[in-house]
From TrEMBL:
It is an enzyme of class 2 (transferase). This is Ribokinase. Substrate binds at residues 9-11, 37-41, 198. GO terms for molecular function: ATP binding; metal ion binding; ribokinase activity. PROSITE patterns: PFKB_KINASES_2. SUPFAM superfamilies: Ribokinase-like (SSF53613).
Length: 251
């Protein structure tokens, strides 16, 4: 069982030849509405891999909220804990909990003054380069920087830290294995990396819940593979792969 606490956002996407300057109107050539929000993205990726998934979130009483609930149902996600009694639909962090009370914390959007309890009570603390910099003040441009971030977050009480590094994959470090490990991503032709981090976190939640005997390194390697599939198509949830379309040795 994968339970995600996090946001649902409706993406209103306009394609234009260039960005407008302040106050300027530019013609768009395409418009579409998509489903996004970090919590929902992670849930969708987990569900598409076959996880029994629930989302805890708030959506508004408007048509976007109604459509979102439908979208979650369409993806086989339980909406029993989707609160549609308020207009608030924001989340500043997402926490994924599985049946072994394991907590995977993704500090997004990151806050420099994050409550220290998040470091202590997360089993796995997973951030990207930008979030890592906001949290630690260390700009992450390479593996060494990510290792410094990892060590600093361990000092703050984290048990296991994963820093995602885009095309470079991930860096992991833990109290049990304090020598940092680089888990590279496969070389692919990236088309659109939006939502890659949520695909990664959703996949990792799936492996934690359904393949708990795998080593953390193996879970990260497999999650890298899934996220690297998502960057080869455009869009966020629309680029997330289904289990049936993935190499079966990932399962
Ligand atoms: P975010 O989307 O939060 O910025 P990242 O850019 O670090 O997160 O990407 C998350 C994961 O997605 C990476 O750890 C990797 O597995 C995969 N990924 C992202 N970009 C690429 C890429 N260009 N090639 C292959 N894998 C990628």
């Amino acid at each position: 069982q994968v339970v995600v606490v996090g946001s649902c956002m409706t993406d209103l996407v306009s394609l234009t030849t260039r960005l407008p300057k302040a106050g300027e109107t530019v013609l768009g050539h395409k418009f579409f509405i998509g489903f996004g929000g970090k919590g929902a993205n992670q849930c969708v990726q987990s569900a598409r891999l076959g996880a029994n998934t629930s989302l805890i979130c708030k959506v508004g009483k408007d048509s976007f909220g109604n459509d979102y609930v439908e979208n979650l149902k369409k993806n086989g996600i339980s909406t029993a804990f989707v609160d549609q009694t308020t207009d608030a639909a924001t989340g500043t962090a997402s926490i994924i909990v599985n049946s072994e009370v394991k907590t995977l914390f993704n500090p997004a959007p990151a806050l420099a003054d994050l409550d220290p309890q998040f470091y202590i009570y997360s089993d796995i603390f997973c951030c990207n380069e930008t979030e890592a910099e906001i949290l630690t003040g260390i700009p992450v441009g390479n593996l060494e920087d990510a290792e410094k971030v990892g060590r600093m977050l361990l000092e703050r009480g984290c048990k296991l830290v994963i820093v995602t590094l885009g095309a470079e994959g991930c860096m992991m470090i833990s109290v049990e294995e304090p020598i940092p490990k680089h888990v590279p991503a496969g070389k692919v032709r990236a088309v659109d990396t939006t939502g890659a981090g949520d695909s990664f976190v959703g996949a990792l939640a799936f492996y934690l819940a359904y393949y708990p005997k795998l080593s953390m390194e193996e879970m990260i390697r497999k999650s890298n593979c899934i996220a690297s599939v998502s960057v080869q198509a455009s869009g966020t949830q629309s680029s997330y792969p289904y289990r049936k379309d993935l190499p079966q040795d990932l399962f």
